[in-house]
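Lab notes, practical 5.
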Amino acid sequence: DAMRVARRIVDDFPGHPRIGELPLEIGYILKETGQYADAIAQLEKVLDELVGNDAAEARFYIGECYQNTGRYREAIQFFYSVSFHGNDASAGWINSADFERAACHEELDEAATARTIYERIIQREGNNSDYAKLAQRRIDQLNLTGAPPSPRGSE
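Output from the prediction step:
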């Protein structure tokens, strides 16, 4: 059991050079095993200590936990915080969070807002990037469903 091993390492080897990675990994394991409330508590507990990609990853996982439990407004806040606090995070985390944030808006029947987020991904990444192509597919799908056009800046 990966969770038991991770917790044992934290308890038995507090001075290990990679010990700082374990609290994030524990949160990830909790999320992946559907223990969303525990994952959120674990990740929020260590969030202030994390920087860069680790902080972006924790925020993203918290967003996924809320998304997976249908709490889309809370998920949107955490996905947004990946880019808002993401000056030192990779574009991959920021784009992934934006995609999930847009998906949450779709779940809330807020297609225009979702479309605006997808358009911003295309703007940021360029038309030929993989992220832009995925975003364009989502926009095309929204157009097929008859969602109203995106009013600029509706996020």
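Observations recorded by the TA: Residues 127 and 133 are 7 Å apart (CA to CA). Helices lie at 2-12, 22-32, 36-47, 52-68, 72-84, 91-107, 111-125, 130-144.
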